[in-house]
Design a protein that fits this description.
alpha+beta; six-stranded mixed sheet; 10 helices; 25% strand; transposition
């Protein structure tokens, strides 16, 4: 006979969320008071008081989230935010990679091609994976030791149980640290990337999504997994889309198949993607990968950065154009392809923080609006990103 379901213990659950209705919380003198349990004997509620930031008002709902031993309180409030509209109609293409985390190209003739290296993200990810594997190994050894003692019908020392409990808690704290680290830095990076796209006059951004499909199907070595599988590309795309909405910019995900092998100058990427696999494999392309990260265009006998080339192909797919000559003349296109600027994620944030003044910044909840950008934002574009 099947057994009836039992209530799961918190230690066996990684994450769950429940929402409180309006009767379960109240606001009093900048404090949020949560009514968690009613005591029938004392006829009083067991309450938790949380101090609210001064800008949080008109709270509509409260969610309590449990994640790996910690509780988080998510507060949903209504804030009137002035609608922003793009200050231009340029388009941008973004190619996502492991080493070159974001490769940004644009139809804006003033902007250089931009490679934002994800070295810091990759280094943190590798450190986290090594530490995780060490702790996981200790947990497995301790569990095996306990099981062996049980199978031999020997008494298991309390020290072993305490050691196992301590290791599991350490493992959970490590997972929480990783989530918080990536959430924090990706929030900062996407905020300034969205701001950069706004002040440079973009209204649409096309992002490659094939890297997400590759992650879901991959069966790589442990070293490749450390570099590739655990990088949160989906989190990055979702955060960027959310931030771009502040400025009225639309993010569209596109198929990036064959973008790094096809030349953005000579090949028709639309035609190549529509071909059947058998025909496509026999097709002689104008581009050839000669080294890791380099593409040789045979017709021009020139070498370009493969990721920049892929980003321009993504731009062609998004804009539905066959030839980049409709956007740029030959000289400008060569400048954009041959002279990309490369910066690290944290350096990119630092550069934008230095050129955007503090005084016009208005905070509404977690949103930052730079009002002065509405009356001509080109003055705030860093010089290192402009084609001279």
């Amino acid at each position: 006979m099947p057994k009836p379901p039992k209530v799961k213990k918190l230690k066996n659950i990684d994450k769950f969320t429940f929402e409180l209705n309006k009767k379960s919380f109240e606001v009093n003198n900048n404090y949020l008071i949560l009514k968690l349990r009613y005591n029938s004997k004392t006829k009083k509620w067991k309450k938790i008081k949380i101090k609210l930031p001064p800008y949080v008002k008109n709270i509509t709902s409260v969610r309590i989230t449990y994640y790996l031993g910690l509780f988080y309180v998510d507060i949903v409030n209504e804030v009137y935010i002035e609608e922003l509209k793009p200050i231009g109609n340029y388009k941008a293409g973004i190619d996502l990679n492991v080493n070159n985390f974001v490769v940004l190209t644009s139809t804006n003739p003033l902007l250089k091609s931009l490679i934002i290296s994800g070295g810091e993200l990759k280094a943190f990810n590798q450190w986290w994976n090594k530490l995780k594997s060490k702790i996981q190994s200790k947990i497995d050894l301790t569990k095996n030791h306990i099981e062996k003692l049980k199978s031999e019908r020997k008494e298991v020392p309390k020290k072993l149980y305490l050691k196992l409990k301590s290791l599991i808690r350490r493992f959970r704290l490590l997972c929480i640290h990783r989530k918080q680290w990536f959430d924090n830095h990706l929030h900062r990076f996407t905020k300034y990337l969205a701001l950069f796209l706004f002040i440079t006059g973009h209204d649409k951004v096309f992002v490659s999504n094939n890297i997400l499909r590759a992650k879901n199907r991959c069966n790589l070595s442990s070293k490749a997994n450390e570099r590739f599988v655990y990088l949160p590309f989906r989190v990055f795309i979702d955060k960027l889309a959310y931030k771009l909405k502040w400025f009225g910019i639309v993010l569209i995900e596109v198929d990036e198949s064959w973008t790094s092998k096809s030349s953005c100058i000579s090949d028709d990427i639309h035609k190549i993607q529509n071909l059947v696999d058998k025909v496509r494999n026999k097709l002689s392309l104008c581009g050839e990968r000669i080294k890791r990260g380099l593409l040789l265009v045979k017709k021009l006998n020139k070498v370009f950065n493969a990721d920049v080339n892929a980003s321009y192909n993504i731009l062609k797919i998004g804009c539905r154009i066959k030839d980049l000559s409709k956007l740029f003349n030959q000289k400008l296109l060569m400048k954009k392809l041959c002279n990309p600027i490369k910066v690290r994620v944290f350096k990119f944030i630092e550069i934008l923080q230095s050129v955007i003044p503090e005084s016009p910044v208005v905070r509404a909840g977690d949103r930052v609006i730079v009002k002065s950008l509405l009356c001509g934002g080109n003055g705030f574009i860093p010089e290192c990103f402009i084609i001279q």
